Amino acid sequence: MRKEGRPECSGTPLFEDLDFPCTDTSLFFDSSTPIARLQGELIWRRPQEICPSPTLFPTNISLAHAKQGLLGDCWFLCACSFLLKNQQLLNKVLPPDQPQWGNGRYRGSFQFRFWQQGDWTEVTIDDRLPCIGSALCFSRCHSPSAFWVALLEKAYAKLHGSYEHLWAGQVAEALVDLTGGVAERWSLGDIGSEEERKTEQDSDQVGRKKLDLSLLSHVKNDCALSCSTHTSPGELGEMGQYHALIVMEWEDVKKVSGSEVRLLRIRNPWGRCCWGGAWTQSGAGWRSLDPDYAAHLKSRLAEGEFWLDETEFMSQFDDITVGYPITEEGHLKSLCTGNLLSHQHHLASRWIKGFSAGGCRNSSSYSSNPKFWLKVCERGEVLISLLQYRKWRNSTKYAQTPQEDSKNMKHQHYRAIALHMWKVEKKRFSLNRMLNKVPCASTHCHAYEREVILHRQLDPGYYLLIPSTYQPGAETRFLIRVFSTSSTSFSALKNPAPSLPPTADGEWETTYFRGSWVEGKTAGGSRNFLSYGQNPCFFFTVCNEPAVTSGVNVKVTLHQIRPDTDLHPIGFHVFKVPRGKSEQTIIRDQDPVASCVPHCYTQDVSLACTLPPGCYTVVPSTYQPDCSSNFTLSLARRIHRKVVQSQERLGKVIQEVSHISVMKN
């Protein structure tokens, strides 16, 4: 890796980003992609070393569109093109008035912002860019003197950990990161067999299984559109598999015969035309139109663009990604109606193994998933987004270490997630009875996607929302966002979720407690300290069941209610309570029968154990005395009777017929 000379401005050294240096660590992750062959061949240059008069944007805005280089990030470049249609969003991502080349305040750095998990994250980079010789290696603008695309790509690579991390992705994810909005991916394939269509009748995605562009007529000029291929269709064979393109516009055109044809103008991020259908420059399709209007349509084409009709579009592409329009005030517009979704709420939460990762509705622990209240004040459109946080493959300032690996790359970063919603007649209700009813709405299945969407017209009233992963015990953070045309309120259910049983079979009874360690009163610290007896105690019993001869499985989970950045080391002990003994005597004189130690700096600690019948007390503690915090304690005891097994499994669609979820492959 070579670095060229360092131009200076007024004698002041230009900024060099030590967090994202000009080394292989910024370019490569595991060298598993084709760019690995570039190791040792790249030179990092600043724009003024590449061309004599660099600028962020060209005077001719049509030359500002992205042109893909050697990096497989067409998905990201398709999202970038949407910024050119919305100046407000462009200014959000790339704050204006930053000093550029030739300006006395220029110092070789640029600031960008990306939407991440509910907030805009600022990323600062230097303007040294990877080149082969004197030409940019990766993405660039069609204008050779414009550098906004190359710099934005570098900032996004820094956010992800390296350029190589940008190889392959979803357009929907990039759209959300660049807009803070919502994007959906719809299939362009066939709906399926008659049996599948019947199964889909209760699915949230039925009406969108096969896209009709007329549904988007309300927002056709404001939304972001991208189409992609997963295979190598005949007319687009040059592109190979997994390529994303931009839908620039579509228009219903009258033929000389009087009939209409819908034409779509497509832009290839590669910057060259790859289409050989009826609407190429000399294609037969143009002869069916008025010659003057045909010439007018052809004149709209820029480099890398081509026209095709709707029939060709539906047959050549596999899916389309649609980004919701966003107004200057930051409000979403409905894709179906164009209505303004002016009311917004969002809440962050997490699925925690042993506490709130209850899995899908097949599992008896489903009710332990996080739960949310949605109050709709008047009838209107409601859009609900469940967005899980990505499990990053690397560790940097911006990225996190993964919790586990997967053999399937598609599933490596995400859990299979879904969202179910029940209408509740009153706020006080039986949860178990409610969950036995059919949800009023749900996402179509548990999907390995970063974000799943639920869109409904809702009547006034209360609604219970339960997000879930398919597998019990699958941990990750998530964000729920609610957008609506009418006034709504949104809150998390205050009751703590019960813990999960240590095994999947049988039924479990869960009791949960709230408590607090208060400095000088109930924050006694660990057993190393004489004040240990001041800690709160929680009594429970294990009953003697005739069918059980070897004890009862018990699982205790302690959850401290503190920010992740300010956790106490926590743990707990379980003591048996003989008749006639006080708790202080027991804690002082007896050894625990079970312990969850050493104390750990974590949100939750849990212990599964087998206890014989009798009376017990759990004593939770921090390691040091006088460490204040609120906490919850959940206790799961196994009940020895069988439960009904349901049949939910991963697949295309879901049909709710009872509390059992049935899914057809």
From TrEMBL:
Protein name: Calpain 10
GO biological process per UniProt: proteolysis
Key words of the record: Hydrolase, Protease, Thiol protease
Pfam families given in the database record: Calpain_III, Peptidase_C2
Every Calpain catalytic domain range: 14-322
Gene Ontology molecular functions: calcium-dependent cysteine-type endopeptidase activity
InterPro entries the UniProt entry points to: Calpain_cysteine_protease (IPR022684), Calpain_domain_III (IPR022682), Calpain_III (IPR022683), Calpain_III_sf (IPR036213), Papain-like_cys_pep_sf (IPR038765), Pept_cys_AS (IPR000169), Peptidase_C2_calpain_cat (IPR001300)
Keyword Hydrolase belongs to the record: yes
Source species: Nothobranchius kuhntae
UniProt-listed SMART domains: calpain_III, CysPc
Family the UniProt entry places it in: Belongs to the peptidase C2 family.
Catalytic site positions: 74, 243, 268
Keyword Protease: yes
